[in-house]
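Customer escalation, tier 2.

The customer says the design service returned an amino acid string that "doesn't look like it belongs to this structure." They asked us to rerun it and document both sides in this ticket. The original structure tokens are below, unchanged.
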């Protein structure tokens, strides 16, 4: 068997009737047609779905170069982006989790409904008929705030007062008499004593709106400083994945994902955190223990109609942009080694052209070779 010619055509040997190969003549009469046996390679492919490996194989006889018999099945060379991904299980929920602890002693007289969202300036819960108010900020409230005090908590208070429409002071980290006057106006609107001082426990700082997840101290129960009152999350949607440690390389912060919801809808997501602590889960039925790390994904689109649900997450493992691809079933294993494709001309005649293979994904393979361009028709297995 000779190697492929410069044009990419692969000469084939003929077999005698008893199955023994006879050497093919170097030159054939022009009127004599050549036929060859094509073998479509058994190709291991990293499929886009689940990272599962599968093989596509088959054999058949197709027209060789110069044959006027058209190939029955063809497809096109395409220029596209190939993406390999692995499908893993995840849970759709809400970003973050916060336990709100009481700092005022008394009786719980109000609780927001589970699933409701509390925003800046609204009552988070009530104690002895008075509101405990949600404000935005990263630092916790931990003391009375009054004239002369300085600190990050004071700056957060002043920024919130201004955002709620109370003016007449400069938001900074110092509680001045002007701040106290704004506090009195705010206290009046809440039905509180107008002291100009914010007592410890009257406000709760959170990074944003809180979605109520559970009541820890129901209405009518007593609450003491340090006792749990409720739990909440942010209103932002996110997916959590307990990722097998062996797949750690698939998860990178800011990496892109696809999330398939229970109704079949697919939305895009971005990895916002990758855990560094390995969690071990005992195996069942004799299986080995499972080691996982936590991966959190923020969704790009709103899915407000679904509160919590199991989802399927596609983690991208490899991406090739702007490459030429053909279906896997277009590949031919050349007898002298390597791979080729049958290029179909405008006259329907086929010529075998050697190709180099690149990335496999979604039933297609990256190829490069002489004369291949987007739109070129190639033969494929039936």
């Amino acid at each position: 068997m000779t190697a492929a010619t410069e044009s990419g055509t692969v000469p084939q040997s003929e077999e005698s009737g008893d199955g023994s190969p006879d050497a093919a003549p170097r030159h054939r009469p022009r009127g004599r047609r050549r036929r060859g046996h094509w073998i479509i390679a058994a190709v291991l492919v990293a499929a886009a779905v689940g990272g599962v490996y599968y093989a596509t194989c088959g054999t058949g006889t197709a027209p060789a170069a110069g044959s006027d018999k058209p190939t029955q099945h063809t497809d096109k060379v395409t220029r596209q982006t190939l993406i390999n991904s692995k499908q893993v299980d995840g849970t759709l929920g809400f970003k973050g989790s916060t336990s709100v602890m009481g700092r005022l002693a008394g009786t719980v007289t109000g609780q927001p409904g589970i699933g409701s969202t509390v925003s800046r300036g609204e009552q988070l819960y009530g104690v002895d008929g008075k509101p405990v108010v949600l404000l935005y900020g990263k630092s916790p409230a931990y003391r009375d705030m009054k004239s002369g005090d300085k600190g990050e908590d004071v700056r957060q208070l002043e920024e919130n007062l201004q955002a709620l429409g109370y003016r007449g002071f400069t938001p900074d980290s110092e509680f001045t008499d002007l701040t106290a006057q704004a506090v009195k106006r705010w206290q009046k609107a809440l039905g509180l004593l107008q002291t100009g001082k914010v007592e410890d426990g009257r406000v709760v700082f959170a990074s944003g709106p809180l979605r109520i997840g559970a009541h820890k101290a129901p209405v009518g129960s007593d609450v003491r400083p340090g006792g749990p009152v409720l739990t909440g999350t942010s209103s932002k949607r996110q997916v959590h994945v307990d990722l097998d440690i062996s797949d750690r390389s698939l998860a990178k912060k800011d990496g892109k994902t696809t999330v398939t919801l229970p109704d079949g809808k697919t939305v895009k997501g971005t990895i916002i955190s990758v855990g560094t602590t390995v969690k071990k889960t005992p195996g069942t039925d004799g299986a080995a223990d499972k080691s996982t790390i936590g991966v959190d994904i923020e969704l790009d689109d709103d899915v407000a109609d679904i509160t919590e649900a199991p989802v399927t997450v596609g983690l991208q493992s490899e991406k090739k942009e702007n490459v030429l691809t053909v279906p896997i079933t277009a590949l031919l294993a050349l007898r002298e080694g390597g791979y080729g494709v049958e290029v179909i001309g405008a006259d329907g005649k086929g010529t075998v052209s050697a190709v180099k293979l690149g990335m496999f994904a979604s039933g297609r393979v990256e190829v490069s070779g002489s004369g291949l361009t987007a739109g070129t028709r190639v033969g494929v297995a039936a």
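Tier 2 assessment: The sequence is consistent with the input. The CA atoms of residues 38 and 61 lie 6 Å apart. The radius of gyration is 34 Å. Sent an explanation to the customer and offered a walkthrough call.
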